[in-house]
Design a protein that fits this description.
Distance between the termini: 180 Å
Structural class: alpha+beta
Shape: extended
Strand content: 15-25%
Radius of gyration: 50 Å
Length: 541
């Protein structure tokens, strides 16, 4: 029976494809667990996803921690700012309460607004008086005469309307060429403005400069050089002088209180208070030494006037007691005064009228027109190879190390050339500032008779100036005519510029005979009226 079972098992094994002679497979108990990797690729992707999940979780934790720290920091900042703002709010409320309790607040705010508006006012301010100097320059020079009977000014548009009469001075007095000359001359007129500076390049205040005589004429030399005077002795006119006087005043005040009593209280070893009076006395010699030091600091620059020359001649110093020598000082001043020119005497008279002590009277000439030869020669080398000073002007037109006028309109340039075997510099001057913004407009002209009965040409004209011509901000304006004539914006007499308006020949009671109008030179092509018809009416009368 057992053999039958074995054969049966062997037959089944053949049927199942098993070798009956093969060793028997091990048998496992049912409680053992086996893992069979049936799909390897799926498992790989699963493991990869698990690793990515772990990394993502770690990164999220780190980011969350960073945001937590940042939130805490910014929260602290916000709390601090809130506390600071709350403190400032409290401070502002306290200040606002004090301000509201200030009784003159309305006046204070009004004054503050006015002060803030000063600059705006100055920027827009115009110099009305400058127009008369400019108009005097526009008038023809020589025998031709143009007088004005009425001038209307529009400061906002820089426009001047003129009613006047033109007189040729010789027959025919009403010659139209005079009006034409007036028009063309005005259109060719230029101007200049700028500032005066000292040797350090610092601006000299306008109040320190005198640019014209009392009759209004410009200071000009025979070669055409224009100059002005700087009054140095005028108190406060020069910063260095003011600093010098302040320093000396301080010394004088200390000298007047040279003796002082000072009370001191001390406690001795036993605890008892002891009061003593100490007298301090400043020696007069010490004060004089201080004065000498002050003059040595400031005097080199500003104390070179006539009085210092007199002191040097007499081996004296400014801080010496000169009361006993007052008569000598006055005599020295008279000698100095008599040696001045008429223009210089007028400058000294002005300083004395302003209350300047005769010992402080001082002035100097400052050229507005460059002194080309002298200023550039200072830097030349002589025959022995020695440099003669420092050049004050370069070939590019730059001026330094010397008081001069800095122009905003005129530029200079030089070029070295050889003439007659010598090296010379030829200078070129260029001015691009035209006085008028547009050409003069002659709106009306007709024949008429002036107050003396002479036949003249009546006219109306309008001129428009450039904006900078009348601006208050622009100082030292100089109108320059095409013939080189000039006039500054200083005071100028206008006598002779205005005259009673001429009567129109067409008005009743005015007789203009044919003989008076003979030789009429023709009409101006700028006249908007028909001058020919006007002349016909004159002949008919």
């Amino acid at each position: 029976m057992d053999k039958f079972k074995e054969k049966l098992e062997a037959f089944r094994a053949k049927i199942n494809g098993k070798d009956p002679n093969a060793p028997e497979e091990p048998k496992f108990s049912e409680n053992k667990t086996f893992e069979i990797n049936l799909v390897p690729e799926i498992k790989y992707q699963m493991l990869k996803s698990m690793r990515f999940r772990k990394v993502s979780t770690f990164v999220c934790i780190i980011v969350a921690a960073v945001f937590g720290v940042a939130t805490a920091i910014f929260g602290g900042i916000v709390l601090t700012e809130n506390a600071t703002m709350a403190s400032q709010d409290t401070k502002l409320d306290s200040m606002a309460k004090k301000i509201n309790e200030f009784g003159s607040m309305d006046d204070f705010l009004t004054l503050q607004n006015q002060l803030n508006a000063i600059q705006t006012v100055n920027d827009n301010k115009k110099v009305l008086s400058r127009i008369f100097g400019v108009l005097s320059m526009l008038r023809p020079q020589g025998g031709d005469e143009v007088t004005m009977s009425k001038v209307s000014i529009n400061m906002e548009e820089n426009t001047v309307s003129i009613e006047g009469q033109a007189n040729a001075g010789v027959a025919p007095f009403y010659d139209y060429r005079v009006l034409e000359s007036f028009k063309k001359g005005a259109e060719l007129t230029k101007y200049d403005y700028g500032r005066y500076v000292d040797e350090d390049g610092e601006e000299i205040p306008s109040r320190c400069m005198i640019e014209a005589r009392k009759n209004g004429t410009t200071y000009i030399e025979a070669d055409g050089s224009i100059y002005a005077y700087q009054t140095i002795g005028k108190y406060g006119c020069d910063a260095k002088i003011k600093a010098l006087k302040d320093a000396l005043t301080d010394i004088d005040e200390r000298e007047s209180v040279s003796t002082e009593n000072e009370t001191k209280t001390e406690i001795d070893e036993s605890g008892k208070e002891i009061t003593t009076t100490v007298t301090t006395r400043t020696r007069e010699s010490e004060l004089r030494a201080q004065q000498a030091q002050v003059y040595s600091e400031y005097g080199v620059d500003v104390r070179k006037n006539w009085f210092d020359k007199w002191l040097k001649q007499n081996n004296l110093e400014r801080y010496d007691d000169l009361t006993s020598r007052q008569s000598e000082i006055e005599a020295a001043f008279r000698t100095y005064y008599e040696g001045l020119t008429d223009d210089e005497k007028a400058i000294v008279d002005t300083e004395l009228e302003d209350g300047v002590d005769i010992k402080d009277v001082d002035f100097r000439k400052i050229y507005r027109t460059p002194q080309f030869t002298e200023w550039i020669k200072e830097g030349w080398v002589d025959e022995e190879g020695q440099t003669q000073g420092e050049a004050r002007m370069t070939l590019s037109g730059s001026i330094s190390n010397w008081p001069h006028f800095e122009s905003r309109c005129i530029t200079y340039s030089g070029e070295e050339t050889e003439q007659n075997g010598k090296s010379v510099v030829v200078w070129t001057t260029e001015n691009n500032c035209m006085l008028l913004a547009s050409e003069m407009n002659i709106t009306e002209s007709s024949n008429g008779k002036d107050s003396s009965g002479e036949l003249v040409l009546r006219f109306k004209a309008t001129v428009t100036f450039e904006d900078t011509v009348l601006s208050f901000q622009n100082k030292h304006v100089l109108a320059i005519g095409p013939d080189g004539q000039n006039v500054t914006d200083s005071y100028r007499q206008i006598e002779g510029m205005f005259e009673q308006q001429a009567a129109d020949c067409n008005s009743p009671g005015v007789i203009c005979t044919e003989s008076e109008v003979q030789g009429n030179s023709g009409s101006t092509n700028t006249n908007n009226n028909t001058n020919a018809s006007t002349r016909e009416e004159v002949k008919e009368s």
